[in-house]
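User: Hey, quick favor. My workstation is busy. Could you predict this chain's structure for me?
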Amino acid sequence: MTTPRTRPTRPRGIWSAAAVAMVLATGCTESPPDASLAAPSPSPSATTAPSPVPAPSPEPSPSPSPSPVDTTATRAAELAARLTDEELAGQLLMVSVHGGAADEVDRWQAAANRELFGVDTPAEVVETLRPGGVILMGRGPLEAEVAGAGAGNVADPEQVPAFVGGLQAAADVPLLVAIDQEHGPVARLGPPFTRFPAAMALGAAGDPLL
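Assistant: No problem, here it is.
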């Protein structure tokens, strides 16, 4: 009688250890999973901040226009820089000339201009002396009684602008033009200009408002 051959048994712990070793070996030999497939890529809207909108560049502000005071001061400085000492001294003077036209005078007016300035006509006075200004004079009530008396600069509204224009044309620097007009007895501008009473007449009226 033959006895059947039996397979030798192994302890269970050996099989368990073998199974764990196989799993570990398999995990080490396979390539690691692609990270891009493992998790979905985050959407740009969820993680990326929107690009900031560039602010518009400020427009350059225009340069401020020079004020009239600045312009006048600059022009005066430029004029003064090209004047001689004698011409600068002349700019401090406001003179009275004789005659009602820049280039035409009678013999009385020519003699008066020669005595004061050494030349005959008002235009020659301006060209020679280079004054800063001219004051217009005329004949008052007392001067009208004497032939040739008074400067005779003012006759009528048509004559005055022509006379002043001729003086300005003779001037290198524009003249400051004034007039001896105190009203009352001293009124160089006659009709059609408004005539005002003298201070004595205002006082005689006895009205404080005047």
